TrEMBL record:
It comes from Phyllostomus discolor (pale spear-nosed bat). Residues 209-433 form the Rab-GAP TBC domain. The gene is TBC1D22A. This is TBC1 domain family member 22A. SUPFAM superfamilies: Ypt/Rab-GAP domain of gyp1p. GO terms for molecular function: 14-3-3 protein binding; GTPase activator activity. The lineage of its organism: Eukaryota, Metazoa, Chordata, Craniata, Vertebrata. Residues 102-179 are annotated as: Disordered. Keywords: GTPase activation, Phosphoprotein. PANTHER family: TBC1 DOMAIN FAMILY MEMBER 22A, TBC1 DOMAIN FAMILY MEMBER GTPASE-ACTIVATING PROTEIN.
Amino acid sequence: MASDGARKQFWKRSNSKVPGSIQHVYGAQHPPFDPLLHGTLLKAAPKVPPTPVKAKRVSTFQEFESNTSDAWDAGEDDDGLLAMAAESLDSEVVMETARRVLHSHSQRQEQLKRQEPPPAPGGDLRLVKSVSESHTACPAEGAGGTVPLQRSQSLPHSATAAPGGPCDPSTLSSSALSEREASRLDKFRQLLAGPNTDLDELRRLSWSGIPKPVRPITWKLLSGYLPANVDRRPATLQRKQEEYFAFVAHYYDSRNDAAHQHTYRQIHIDIPRMHPEALILQPKVTEIFERILFIWAIRHPASGYVQGINDLVTPFFVVFICEHTEEEDEDVADVSRVPAEVLRNVEADTYWCMSRLLDGIQDNYTFAQPGIQTKVRMLEELVSRIDEQVHRHLEQHEVRYLQFAFRWMNNLLMRELPLRCTVRLWDTYQSEPEGFSRFHLYVCAAFLLRWRKEILEEGDFQELLLFLQSLPTAHWGDGDVSLLLAEAYRLKFAFADAPNHYKR
């Protein structure tokens, strides 16, 4: 057994590599130190450099859609198909529909073949692996040989064709994708333009992702911040924005009072540590976040400010501010050119929508954070039922779920995923009943098992923990999030007979 000095030295070495490493303070990114849970940290372990993660090619859901777009009508909505699939259909109707689809698909393929130039000599058919298989090395193949399918999800890629030809795959993909996006955007706009928005239909459309131009208004509706009636929205916005700035005028000057000085100081320290840096380091953004978090803490004394709440401001703010900026990337939104009055409205809207979110998960941030501890225990039990091998592997190497999953619950995976992926994830969370609480549990289970192969290959406590606290998701996109959500949705129904505490 190593000495206390050796244990501290281990975490001192690892601290630079582990974001949000374990701190012995309440409300940090990881839970307080518990000798019963963290006894394994007393073990001495040689310093082994972490295994570098190999660069991998990720097949996106958009790429899949573009390569199979000719099998379906460009205006057909996948949500409708999913809804049909969820019903109990007559087998003859299903088979007849399938025959029509296959016949239409074969006719279109014949037309494309007649237009397509022959492939270049030595060209081969390539496979885009599924995300779950992208880490597996491709087996050697001979000239003209085929690549064996690893899983049924492996997706075929279009044959190589001469660039600029009459049937250039890249041109077709962009065209099909833009048509599909335009069709979805049109459906959202028609729904939002009605005198009373059908919120159930809006949730159904939003589950698969919300087009960027209508995301701000859709988030406000799904959050319950705006009413469904169009005529009532302007008055509601004005009233809520005025109410927020009345709070600011009444409470914000008290940030320097002895009773609130510690809260404000902690907020002031935490904000520069947030991501993305290009956004957070803008002085105007820092001031806005400080006001939002301080006002929320003062008005919710049962929990007050707890580290982790600060991260939940960012997605709302970037979605609402990007409506008024020209940048396509949320990470680099420049607020300096946004008019002051618009910025004030964005601040108020962000405060109210964040408050609505926190109302549903406030037990995550009350004293000792019982909500998070309960959810971590539920995750452990769920994973043990889904994949006993992974669960036993973590148990064998004495890796506790609290050591990595506490932050997943505390920050809603915001520290594990790029901001663009968090925004896409929240599209679904806001359209799913209890999305930020109950459904998030299944997303975390799917997220953990996404790294099953890497977890089982690690045979060392230190390397396992370092991997789980810094997962390689920097290059994730909407396709990866869509696959993650689909797996979480499957788990949700596969374990519908779970004990009642899964449904809390």
